[in-house]
User: Fold these one by one.
Assistant:
Number 1:
Amino acid sequence: MLSILRREAAAGCSDAVLLRERLRRSCAAATARLRGYATAAKEMTVREALNTALDEEMSADPRVFLMGEEVGEYQGAYKISKGLLQKFGPERVVDTPITEAGFTGIGVGAAYYGLRPVVEFMTFNFAMQAIDHIINSAAKMNYMSAGNISVPIVFRGPNGAAAGVGAQHSQCYAAWYGSCPGLKVLAPYSSEDARGLLKAAIRDPDPVVFLENELIYGERFPVSAEALDSSFCLPIGKAKIEREGKDVTITAFSKMVGLSLEAAEILAKEGISAEVINLLSIRPLDRPTINASVRKTSRLVTVEEGFPQHGVGAEIGMSIIEDSFGYLDAPIERITGADVPMPYAANLERMALPQIEDIVRAAKRVCHRSVPMAATA
């Protein structure tokens, strides 16, 4: 188009003003198209988001290194570390023996001396082998050294239930680690969450427990142009309102955010406007955002995959009682996993985990909508 206009101008087009206007409009249209491509949301899996975050942070800071079982030659049990060994070499992508206590201790010691280790657990259930190093060596050292020793380390891997892996591989550790001073505990849901929070965790001077979910590694989410920038990170301790509403607040984290959003869609068809809060950070917990939402809706449903007793929902509920009790128009409802070890049988496993219909029924109860007797059993 531009070449045609230039040829017309060279041939001595009589209407110079019209020609300039046509040229201006053509350039404006081309620029608009380019901007449209630049700002259009790109889709990315959670797996890709974590992989690119690791890649960029390792490229930006030579102190960052990754260690864990099968993170190198096998490229990660869930392929989160795909391509990193080839790019950074075995000194920065370290395959370890099956010794969680051993390699976690090495990672904590490296952090004492100024390196920034990212320790991958094949599942957080195996992190119980390393609990002494996570709690006593990492979480408490900054306090016990009067601030002289910081411990910039990330402990990451899949948390919570997978599918058909039994009781010893299906526990949610958010409440465990969330109760421990000295740790920061993050739990992303979407690809943008995963990318922004992992970058923030690696850059943070304190130990961070980063709880992923195996079942959403392959899910695709839109990612903004801003989030694709290598400097992007999300603030630790800040929740995100995924869906605004006025009738009931639903808090959730990790995979449960997706279920809560689906429940909100169902509720909307029945005239209930649900506000869904993606916690993102378990410790520190964004109490101001949660309280502000409950003061608006006057109702609260908390959703989590973990056990009910001493859970994240219990902490959130107590926060509301302490700060916003006078705003409540109904009792707080908690949706959790069952108070039993995870069953292996698929039908029992489903009964032991929160389902969309559980969230819908709880929201209806707090909104004083009738719920069929069979649904309350």
Number 2:
Amino acid sequence: MGVEVSTDKGESEAVENSYLPLSTNHRSSSVNSTWEPDGVTFFIIQGLANIGEERIILFVILLLGYIIILGGNSMIIYVAMTDPKLNSPMYFFLYNLSFVDILYTTTTIPKMLSGFLTDMNTISVVGCFLQMHFVIQLGVTEKAILTVMAYDRYVAICNPLRYAAIMTRPVQLLLIAGAWGFSILCTLPATSMSWQRPYCGPNVVKNGWCDLSSVRRLVCADTSVDNIVSLSWAILALLTTGVLILTSYVLIGLSMLKMGVAQRLKAFGTCAAHVTVVSIAYSSVSCVYISYRVVNFSSEVRIIVAVLFGALNSFLNPMIYSLRNKELRESIKRTLSRFRPAAVLRTKDVNTLS
């Protein structure tokens, strides 16, 4: 494909070295922490290149999933922004979540799809680190917006009379800005440290995209500090959002104990979709983490697990909220009914002209 990869011996050595543990110093720590003239100028994303004839099947499945993700989340964004009946803060946060889901999957899936169609899936050094940064940041942003939505549900159930006064539009914008700011804060230290490390070969990324852990295995220096920094910020991001979400629902549960049966059912219906999405989100993170720590998993299995669980939230979120939320379902039906007469009219015009 117009790309030369040194020699067969060098390539096999590259593959072998890229499997080394994260904490292993497999290059001399005396190597300069600046880019060498003869250093890595591009990365090869291995992805699922070794699966053979099943490649086209996975390509079709992934493409269909991506189309559904784009369609479902785009529909939620459209109806939430155009339907005046969906003007509550919950829908404002929901379409921001859908926007993040679209960006997250678009950061990874198109590059993976292109890898199914080529013999060697390459990416520039800058492109690799940009992809790495946005994958991590958007993942944290999703958890932060879910935290904001948990707070919104807490205010709606525990302080219903003050809900409109508390959740004003400036407050909503501030919460969303805080979610993005928090994700940037948690992402920059690890990705900026990885950017400054030397990469002199091998350059084969054992993942479907430029994952931080996979790229770090290619560093030609000691990465012990990098591991500690990235782990610390990852724990901070997950614990902070997880504890805040849990606290919100503990307070909601205590408030529900004082309600009547009808009020409890209404409150549970209000929170059911969000609780389901949060459960899937954190279960997905746990499954991906476990798959990377199980030694006897092949790299292909790890990639498939990462792709499935990484895209699971973006795939299921529109379905979950549509099924659990009557207002959203009715809004989608109204939107589709507005498009249907126009489509029928255009068909009649075409038939008349023909």
